[in-house]
User: Fold this.
Amino acid sequence: MNKDERYTEIDLAALLKAFWRHIWLILAAIAVLGGMAFAYARFLITPMYTASALMYVNNNSLSVGSTKVSLSYSDLTADTYVVILNARTTLNEVIRTSGVDYTYKEMQRMVSAGAVNSTEVVQIDVTMPDPQEAERVANTITKVLPGRIADIIDGSSARVVDTAVAPSGKASPSYTRYTALGMLLGLVLSCGFITVRELFDDRVQDEDYLLQRYADIPVLAVIPDLNQTKHGS
Assistant:
């Protein structure tokens, strides 16, 4: 057991030395793949912009025959209103009213919503390639959704807390994130290549290599490096 641990430590040290010997390869891989990832994010990915609007949803009472039942926000969570928002009828009405050229499925992928800190305020996010279009769609939702909620859930109403404005900065892609991931990939691939190369390299490196690999066999002689001798003299 101790013998195996000693060999593991020596192999790890040799591997670190190999990394240092090929540091130029590691740095080159990091620079190249980091640059490629940045270029991919910069020139091949369409920038997306997110416009957000806030709505307050109120639940008062639900009529069941002649009986009125009071509802709390915990009874009708934000998930209920998100389902109504993502319904085909609601989004088709939003598409028609806003005048955008998207299908229902495309619009569904661009719209997301959720409660703000478990309150009765729902945040609606619209992410699109055009910031003005994202603003228009988000504000259209705040006009269409209250009517849809009132038609479906008795005693519920929705009011606009904050309208959407055209975003000044893009939501994605993040150049920094893509570049960092590319650099990390370059580091992993270059280190992996060096590791595999070292593991399959069965050449005799030096006297220490023989002593470590074949500890039970004595070394009878060592051939000196004549080039080192000449330079030394």
